[in-house]
What does this fold into?
Amino acid sequence: MSLAIVILAAGQGTRMRSRLPKVLHPLGGRPMLQHVIDTAHQLAADEIAVVVGHGAEQVQAAIDDPTVRWVLQAEQLGTGHAVAQALPVLEADDVLVLYGDVPLVRAELLRPLVDGLAAGRIHLLTVTLDDPTGYGRIVRDERGEVRRIVEQKDADADTLRIREGNTGILAARRADLARWLDEVDDDNAQGEFYLTDVIEHCIAGGGHVQAWRVDDELAVAGVNDKRQLNRLERAYQHQQADRLLAAGVTLADRARIDVRGELVAGRDVSIDINCVFEGRVVLGDDVTIGPNCLLRDVEIGDGVQVHANSVLEGSVVEADCQVGPFARLRPGTRLRRGAKAGNFVEIKQGDIGEGSKVNHLSYIGDARLGRDVNIGAGTITCNYDGARKHHTDIGDGAFIGSNSALVAPVTIGAEATIGAGSVITREAPAGQLTLARERQTTVPHWKRPKKGDH
Ligand code: UD1
Ligand code: CA
It folds into this structure.
């Protein structure tokens, strides 16, 4: 049987108090809707339709997935109306309904719903809640069979006491769903076409509703405001931390790490507090990351130490390098094996050769350094002339004295030495000492003025 997944994402999300459409608010660095679409892919859906309305263009632009069919629900007349808009564009036999603002739902909770569907049946996911406020209530008969779902706003006092809530997630044959939705009206407290009303039409037609009841409220929790989003964000981050701990990573504090993307770690990796990982980050074996570091889209080799307060982006750091404290590696940077970028060092599009050291207070941009180069404190590659960027090339074993300005384009030969405080504008030959500064002079017979002198 083929499967279509319909994801409802047309609502405004007023309570988020944001210009961003609700389903685009990030969780773990990715839009909530993206999480749901990823889950749909895990279920090997043959078709995925996302129903959009508020901010439809923005939502479509933010999700880069050519397999998604976008369905416009111009007016938000209710969840039933929303599903009804999607059905005509679908061909699959079975339909599973998910929500763009229920981001933590997992494929394994949904599999039983889509397995073994039959004509005239609804598979429903329900949840046991300590506080069911806001949820539709699951009304069962004396035999325990699901009879109805009653929305909070339509419920009497007895019904409100029911602690089994509707997750909103259900599955049925597409043809059945279309027929039942046709019969749904908007005669209720909110004047909406409720998806939940298909339950009664299913039963009235001799069908049967089977409920899967879960306890994991976080997995089915919806996001309506920033507080709920924050609760799910923290839960998600705890899941990421536990996954890392289970894989053998040492975390100084499970509650003080944020993974906003994908973090892959080798053996005996240790991560101190307040580190943020964004995009795809790969850490080799025996890597240690000091406190307060941000790593975005980087690859870190075995045995690397990243010291406190360093920011690394779009870079490759090969084995046994040292980075920081307070280093900044910008995109396009590669530290080759055993290299060092020390405190207050910024490197942009720098290729730093094996064993080379940029120990302190330097800016290296658009530069290639050979192996075993030593860059003295305060060295600047002057790579920008106000219009274009220029390249600096430094040969193996070169030694750049402190406080030198290398005005690009410029080449420093292998084993060259640059005297401290030099402004280098032309090629510095290999193996020689080059100085480009005023010579030191001492003025003879000079006397320091004294107070009272005339
Ligand atoms: C819905 C369920 C309720 C369930 C709860 C779980 C109905 C009638 N009620 O209530 O039983 O306990 O979810 O969270 O289904 N949407 C559209 N188009 C619309 C209306 C809604 O796309 O016309 C989308 C919203 O963007 C949202 C989702 O459907 O993602 C749920 O809609 P919402 O209005 O939040 O329903 P609830 O009142 O929470
Ligand atoms: Ca909701």
